[in-house]
Amino acid sequence: MDRRGFITAGLRLSASASNWSKALADGRPEAVAEPGSPGLLAHMDERLNYLRRVDDELGSGEVLKQARGELSLAVKLIKARRYSGPAVDHLYRIASEASRQVAWCTFDQGRPGAAQRYFDASLRASAEANDAVGGAYAMSFAAVQCYSTGQPGRAVDLLDTARTQIKGRGTPRMEAMLAARTARALSKTGAEAATRRHLDLARAALDKGPRDDDPGFLYWVTYGEIEMIAGSSALDLGYPAQALRRFEAGMDAYPGDEDFPRSHAIYLARAAEAHLALYDLDAAIATARHAATCLGAVDSARSASELTGLCEKLAPHTAHPAVRDFLEAG
Hints:
By secondary structure, the protein is mostly helical. The chain has three domains: 1-169, Serine Threonine Protein Phosphatase 5, Tetratricopeptide repeat (Alpha Horseshoe); 170-254; 256-330. It is built from 15 helices and no strands. It is globular, with a radius of gyration of 20 Å. The chain starts with a helix and ends with a helix.
């Protein structure tokens, strides 16, 4: 997809965010999930929870197909008007999360233009349920798409919108996630002080500890993840030594080779880039090999592109035997 396509997708996401905010402002009081939801809806929740874990371990390829099925079922149930009252809100929340998963997996497969349409659908469904937290969560992933495709300023705007809408409704862990992703987006604009400030906000929010009302989808928001984001941010800001310290701290707290191999592969590829920036080719190759091992059977164009980018940076150093062997091994 060319840069014009990236910009078009970003513009549409901004419009979606604006419409979402207006819908929440004009809507009824926030829906509250009630116990004893219809069994089918509870099973759909369970399947979506399971798909999040599959995405962590195996990547987006298979999850994309399964999440599309869940979204299709949710849409059919909505159109059939089978449910009423709180169950309808529950169903819209399911549709929002299923659409978010389809959007994220589509982006992870290298199709940001198509992903944008599903992010838009996720926001619309969350607005129908008046679910600010679920919509903000979807918006945070749309922001990742924006800052990953050269539009970090737009990502910051999306995250600011999400933070505004959950004010007084989100838990500290939700606040930590939004602050950390804001820091990541800011690092790509070169805003060093603002990046540090938001990372500090993320750590301080986690320091408040877990809450009984933490959304289940935030299981991955940990100190280790925050430090990995801090490492990526330091690398983009031109501080490779600091990046390595943060990556090391993150890996100590976030042993993700088995549970989060896709994310771990991305962070390891960035750590290898930091070693390369410090002219430590042996460490760069050792870390790159670890990243390739993590990637293994993971189906993720996004992760593979990180490793490809690292290989391009290593290419001028083929006089070094370890670099040459690694690149020749593919």
